[in-house]
């Protein structure tokens, strides 16, 4: 799994690239993306062919308040990855907790390690 493109500016809109950790077991690949300031309902995860896209929309602070000083970056998040052929894109689990999106992409059964038993004889 690798990043497909730099998404800092796309279609004239500026996005932040969320930091991501990717780990692997013999059965799956796990991607954890940091999306601070994004609500669960404002996250889009799309898989199109071998391309995984994560987009997180940050809503502005309460519009009834007058901002006196602001240092936080209000840009939305966007990042795209190319997926390897060994991943089963129909078997993906997603969770979101404390600003961290966790995606678990399971490997296709045919690429999983196999144990071969030896028959007595």
What global shape is seen?
elongated
CATH topology-level name: Immunoglobulin-like
Unreliable spans are 3-7
Measured between the Cα atoms of the first and last residue, the distance is 44 Å
Features:
single chain, 121 residues, mainly beta, Immunoglobulin-like, 6-stranded mixed β-sheet, 0% helix, elongated
Question: Can you describe what's shown?
Answer:
It is a single chain. The chain is mainly β. The chain has a single domain, classed as Immunoglobulin-like (Sandwich), CATH 2.60.40. The protein is 0% helix and 55% strand. The chain contains no helices and ten strands. Strands 1, 2, 3, 6, 7 and 8 form a six-stranded mixed beta sheet that branches. A four-stranded antiparallel beta sheet has the order 4-5-10-9, with no helix packed on it. The protein is elongated and about 80 Å long. The N and C termini lie far apart (44 Å). Residues 3-7 have low confidence and may be disordered.
